[in-house]
C-alpha cells in the first residue's frame, strides 16, 4: 500500500484508536471520566487552532522549540509525519477537544534498535495544569505498547527546567550531554540526553531479529 499523507494519517489514527480502546488502559488509568486528555493525530483541520496557539505561546516556547506559526508552515510540517518514521500527536482535552499541546514521536528506527525520539510542546492557554504530564504518560505507553518500541529518547536544553522535570517524572534517566546538538531559533543549542526503555520480548515488534 502506498504511504500517502492520507494513508499515513489513517494508520496513525487506527493505531491510537486501538491503543486507547484497550481494557487494560482503562483499568490501569482509573475511571474514564478521570482522564482529562486524550491523544489524536494532528490533521490538516487543526491548522487554524494550531497556528493560533503557537503564536499565543511564543514566549513559552522560546527558545526551547520552533514550531510552525503560519498556515503554509503548518501544512508543510504535516508532511513529515509518515507514520512509519514520525508521528505528530495532539494532546486534546476530553472536555471540549481543545489542544493543550502536541507530542512528536520522531526518528523511529526498527531492526535491532527499536528506538524513537520524543518531543513535546505545551500551549500557553492551558499550561501549568498537568495536561502535558498526562498526555506524555499516554504517549509513552502508546510508543511501548502499541508501536512496540524498546527505547524512547528525549533531548532537552539544560535551561528548560519544566521539560526536564516532566521527563524525570515519567521515569526517564539522564544519559549524557550533547553540545550544539540541534539548530533551534537560529543557534546550535546544547541538549541533555534522557531515555526510557522497556523490556517486553513477548511483545517485540516483528522487525526485531530473533537473535
- The count of DSSP E runs of length 2 or more, i.e. the number of strands, is 7
| Rough outline | globular
Biggest sheet details: 7 strands, mixed
Q: CATH superfamily name? A: Gcn5-related N-acetyltransferase (GNAT)
Mean pLDDT: 91
Radius of gyration: 17 Å
Total domain units? 1
CATH class: Alpha Beta
Which structural category fits the helices and strands? alpha+beta
Gap from first CA to last CA: 29 Å
Helix run count: 7
- Residue stretches low in confidence (pLDDT < 50, at least 5 long) are none
Order of helices and strands: HHEHHHEEEHEHEE
Describe, in plain words, how this protein is organized in 3D.
The chain has 211 residues and is of the alpha+beta class. The protein has a single domain, classed as Gcn5-related N-acetyltransferase (GNAT) (Aminopeptidase, 3-Layer(aba) Sandwich), CATH 3.40.630. Strands 1-2-3-4-5-7-6 form a 7-stranded mixed β-sheet, with helices on both faces. The protein is globular and about 50 Å long.
Can you give me a brief rundown of this structure?
Belongs to the acetyltransferase family. RimJ subfamily. By secondary structure, this protein is an alpha+beta fold.
How do the strands and helices of this protein lay out in sequence?
Elements: H1 5-20, H2 23-29, E1 37-41, H3 47-56, H4 58-61, H5 71-78, E2 87-93, E3 99-109, E4 115-122, H6 131-146, E5 151-156, H7 161-169, E6 173-184, E7 187-197
Parallel strand pairs: 4-5
Antiparallel strand pairs: 1-2, 2-3, 3-4, 5-7, 6-7
Features:
211 residues, alpha+beta, Aminopeptidase, 7-stranded mixed β-sheet, 7 helices, 28% strand, globular
Amino acid at each position: 500500500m502506498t504511504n500517502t499523507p492520507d494513508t499515513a494519517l489513517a494508520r496513525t489514527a487506527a493505531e491510537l484508536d486501538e491503543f486507547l480502546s484497550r481494557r487494560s488502559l482503562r483499568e490501569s488509568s482509573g475511571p474514564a471520566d478521570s482522564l482529562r486528555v486524550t491523544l489524536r493525530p494532528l490533521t490538516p483541520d487543526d491548522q487554524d487552532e494550531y497556528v493560533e496557539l503557537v503564536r499565543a505561546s511564543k514566549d513559552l516556547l522560546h527558545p526551547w522549540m520552533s514550531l510552525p506559526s503560519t498556515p503554509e508552515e503548518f501544512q508543510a510540517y504535516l508532511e513529515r509525519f509518515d507514520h512509519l518514521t514520525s508521528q505528530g500527536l495532539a494532546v486534546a482535552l476530553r472536555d471540549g477537544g481543545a489542544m493543550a499541546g502536541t507530542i512528536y514521536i520522531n526518528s523511529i528506527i526498527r531492526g535491532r534498535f527499536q528506538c524513537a525520539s520524543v518531543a513535546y510542546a505545551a500551549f500557553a492557554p492551558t499550561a501549568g495544569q498537568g495536561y502535558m504530564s498526562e498526555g506524555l504518560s499516554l504517549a509513552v505507553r502508546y510508543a511501548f505498547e502499541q508501536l512496540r518500541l524498546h527505547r524512547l529518547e528525549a533531548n532537552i536544553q539544560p535551561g528548560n527546567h519544566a521539560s526536564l522535570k516532566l521527563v524525570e517524572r515519567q521515569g526517564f534517566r539522564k544519559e549524557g550531554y550533547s553540545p550544539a546538538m540541534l539548530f533551534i531559533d537560529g543557534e546550535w543549542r546544547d541538549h541533555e540526553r534522557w531515555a526510557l526503555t522497556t523490556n517486553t520480548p513477548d511483545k517485540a515488534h516483528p522487525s526485531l531479529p530473533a537473535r
